[in-house]
Structures are given as structure tokens and as C-alpha cells.
């Protein structure tokens, strides 16, 4: 029997092992042995933190440095719950203590400002230069503020939040909602595809309506969409009708939903059918890969990063892997779950490469819960594999909550949504 | 009974047998029928890593999703196949399980079943 053979997949970190002798004994930064492999990860969100943790978990002989500007990372998943008054900011706050202390990831709170793909180094804003054997770039998204006339970063930070990166933006929109005058409308303006979290704006509309129903019953939510259809549309619309009557109105791009610009003083958005006034205006601008990916030349003309679908290694710069929202991952959506799944696949792939072995073919998953009201959630799931067409979802698997799901099933999904958040947060940062 | 029978042989016929994991008896030892080599199967690993996103790292759940750390290979394989065939009620697991071949389910069960083997031997 082979039961005594150590298998890294389940090993707790053995601090007396090779890794323990080089890492973290005094909580200090990692002094690298000349022959120790070093992976640098840029970005401590769903993708980057997953990759950092899983490299250290699966092969503690590899040193990992994680670059993340903030000491607290607020998750976009569940940030709509904060707006709806169902969660507090502390409930969506993740920290890096476990990655540092248990997994001995060298976490540096700084911003990566330059990647030298030829010499394999990363320069931080603070001046430090890190050398890497392999680099993982997981920078998330940036916004194309100039896509809408009158909109800007400053407008987002003061008047018309995007609230599509959690943190201060979540607090701003939540405060605006609380201060909204009963009878004034909330405008939510989602972009065209592709963008982060396709069902996000519609869960947001749901939970804002939930709040309005209780606190400002004369207000309503108008979604001015840049698309003709949206994620989980049938399930959302059924839920809206059941729960909120006419409180949520969705206008497709061709039915006056297309937003051309904004007037931050008049608090209006300009559509092809004329101006629309809002007491709270949530502009979710079109998006591109995060700045460092663009600056490093990792993007193609789409603004996103093409990658090898087995290891997520950049098709442009060898030795650099791009994961999460920034990468082009076949038919996978840009979601936290997908980013984490990609982070783990990339971790396993990098380990195989560093061991001189062939990486296993990727297997990826996405599951996305959307809360329509407390006790009422819908989900979409997919399992992905690599084919000659790239990463595609497997036919016959995955799919949506059934349209005829009864109340018990929808309530069960809401319970599982909460359970999902706890477990994925634990799997990434815990 | 199960400990004398190969997992491979019984996998198809144990749909009605309920095993709750290593602590239920012999299940753990049955997973020894397939030799685990010095390294885990990399395909099994890649397939299995997805599960942790909802069920916790190594299947150690901290939320309402059932944890499966320490469950036997037989139990896991059986459960996944029941989800896949719609024989076991679920909200989302059937949608997931249908994404894997029976061979892949065996690899996933083998990967996580390893922990069970460690705890019972």
C-alpha cells in the first residue's frame, strides 16, 4: 500500500521542510536560494490570490511574492448585497494574513508600475525591483471613462459611481441610495459585452429595488442598457415581476437604453430617445484589462489579453501568465469564480512547467449566484474544457436555475449563495 | 464486504449503497485498490481543484455546502454519479456533475479520496 507516500495536494505546509528553511521563519521577506524558483503575482483579487495560495500549497519549494496595493481587498461579489442593506462592508472585506502567515506568500502592498518581459523583472511604485522565473498578472479591469461624453474618473468618484470595483465606490453608491429622495429614480447603465460579471447590474437592480420597496416606495429603478439581452434575463424578469411589480424597468439599447453621455450637474443621462433624469445614477462604463497589462503590452486590439488556454501564459510575452477578467478565456465569463478557477489551473500548470513536466489539460468551472431578494436567488453554472475551438463550456452540463423552480428551490439557492461566498473566500484568502 | 472488492468492479453497482465516509467503516480501505503513485494524477488534480471553490479547500467546507474532506473514494464517486444521473436531489450539483465523464469522476474521487485513506491507515 502506498498510504504513507506524501502527496502534496493534501499536505499541510510543513514548516520544517525545504520551504520552511527558506521562508517565513521570522516572518521576514523571502530570502531566495540561488536555485529556488520564484513566481511573482500581480493582483490579490480572486485570480491572483488563488494562484499565489495554490502554488504554495501544491509545491512549497516555489517562492511566491504577491503584489497588491491594498491591505484589505473588497470583493465585487456580494457588494450588491451591501447596497441592498443585506451585508456590511466588513462582510466583503478580505485580508492577506493567512496567505502571509500560513502559506508564506511574501505579500507586498505596493503597485506594480513596470514589467520587463525580456529581463523577467517587475518594478514597484516604491522603487523595488523583483526578479521572477514566471509572472502571473491578475490586474482585473479598468474603465474607459471617455466612452461616455461628460463622464470621467472624477465624476465616478464624486457624483455618478460605477461601483464596479468594490470599496469606496460601494460606500458611495450605498450612501447615495440611503439619501435618495423618495420618488426620485435610480438609473443603472450597464455596458455592452464583454464586461465584468455579466449578471451584476441586474442583481444590483434587484437588491436596490428591494431596498426601495422598504424605504422609498415611490422610487423605481430604470436600467438603460447598451445590450439587447442580458445574463439570466428570463429568471431576473420573472423574479422582478413576482417581487417588485413595476419597480424595475429595463430598456434595451434599441429601445432607448443606449447611453450617449451624461450631465453630472443636471443629473441626467443622454439617450437616443432624449435625456433621462435620475436621483442616483450608476454608470458602468465599458472596460479593458487593468493598466499594468496594457502598459506591458499584454493586450491585443480588443483591450484584453490573449493567452495559451492550457497554462494561461500570454500569447504575446512568454513567461507571463494573465488570468481573471483581464484575459481572454474562451467562452468563460469575467467573474470572480472564473478568475479563481483560472488561478488554480495556472498554479498547477506553472508547477508542472517548473518541474519540467507537461501541464495537464485544463478543467475550469464557473458558478454564479444572483440574489433577486433575500431568500430568492438564481444561478448559472458551467464546466469548461479545452477543445480545438479553445476553452468552451461542455454541452449538456451547466445551465440556469430552471424557470419553473419553486419558492423552496429559490430559497435554497439563496442559502447556497451565502455558503458559496464563505467557501470561495476561504478557498482564496483563508 | 466492500473492502474485498475492487472499486472499479463495484463502482457501477453500488448506487444504492450509502457510505458516509471513512469513519463509517471499511470505505477507506477500499480506496487502496488502486495504487497511488509517487505523484497524484495531474488530471485528477486539475479536475478536483474546481470543487474547492464551493466546498472549501480540500473539501473542508466552512459554509452550508457539504464538506467532503476525509470521505472515501467510493463515497465520492458514488455521490457524483448519482448527481450526474439525477438520482440525488441537488440545486446545482447535477449541472456540474454532467460536465464530467465517468472516468473523470473516478479521477476526482480518487484525488479527494486520498485524504480518507490517510486518516484510516
Automatic annotation (TrEMBL), chain A:
Keywords linked to the UniProt accession: FAD, Flavoprotein
PROSITE patterns assigned to the protein according to its UniProt record, in alphabetical order: TAT
Residues annotated as domain Sulfide dehydrogenase [flavocytochrome c] flavoprotein chain central: 170-285
Domain FAD/NAD(P)-binding residues, every copy: 38-143
Residue span(s) of domain Flavocytochrome c sulphide dehydrogenase flavin-binding: 361-429
Annotated InterPro entries: FAD/NAD-bd_sf (IPR036188), FAD/NAD-binding_dom (IPR023753), FAD/NAD-linked_Rdtase_dimer_sf (IPR016156), FCSD_central (IPR049386), FlavoCytC_S_DH_flav-bd (IPR015323), FlavoCytC_S_DH_flav-bd_sf (IPR037092), SQRD (IPR052541), TAT_signal (IPR006311)
GO molecular function terms noted in the UniProt entry: flavin adenine dinucleotide binding; oxidoreductase activity
One Pfam family of this chain: FCSD_central
Leader peptide range in chain numbering: none
Gene3D superfamilies: FAD/NAD(P)-binding domain, Flavocytochrome c sulphide dehydrogenase, flavin-binding domain
Annotated protein name in UniProt: Cytochrome C
Organism: Prosthecochloris vibrioformis
TrEMBL record, chain B:
Signal peptide start-end: none
Presence of the UniProt keyword Heme in the record: yes
Keywords: Electron transport, Heme, Iron, Metal-binding, Transport
Pfam families: Cytochrom_C
Entries under InterPro entries matching the protein: Cyt_c-like_dom, Cyt_c-like_dom_sf, Cytochrome_c_Oxidase_Subunit
Source taxon at top rank: Bacteria
Protein known as: Sulfide dehydrogenase
PROSITE patterns: CYTC (PS51007), PROKAR_LIPOPROTEIN (PS51257)
Stretches assigned to the Cytochrome c domain: 31-116
Single GO MF descriptor: metal ion binding
Source species: Prosthecochloris vibrioformis
